[in-house]
Amino acid sequence: MNHTNQTGKQLAITGLVLQLCALGTLIFSLVGILREFDKMSAASDPSKLANGISESLTPMAAGSVVGLVGIILISIALFSLRYRAPWFRTMLWVLAIGWLPAFPVGTILGVILVIYLIKHKDEFKVPAIRQPV
Q1: Who contacts 68 (Cβ-Cβ below 8 Å, separation ≥6)?
Q2: pTM for the structure as a whole
Q3: What would the pLDDT profile of 73-82 be if each residue is shown by its tens digit?
Q4: What is the distance between the alpha carbons of residues 83 and 106, in angstroms, rounded to a whole number?
Q5: 93-99: Cβ within 8 A, 24+ apart
């Protein structure tokens, strides 16, 4: 494996891990917000609700930054370094489908990535091993 391919692999893996971390913070934040609304049903102090939601949104903001860095790393691996492993294509499909419901930016990114993956599907095939003659 050449240096560019190894760098592409490292960037792809790091970017995908960062995307998973961003998803984790999103889930964590949503659970926190739901808990705050559950607490609100027991007490009717709007300022406590606002503070609780604010605390839940802080990790979401951090997760968004982490997710953006992940997108940048994946883009470098895909477009600049042209990393083309079959596993990476599979993960890009999962990522694209996961982005689609995140209207409007995620939907746009997801559609662009789906179109790209369809147009460039042959680039991600495992190269045939040449047998010496």
Answers
A1: none
A2: 0.85
A3: 999 999 999 9
A4: 22
A5: 93/117, 95/16, 95/19, 98/23
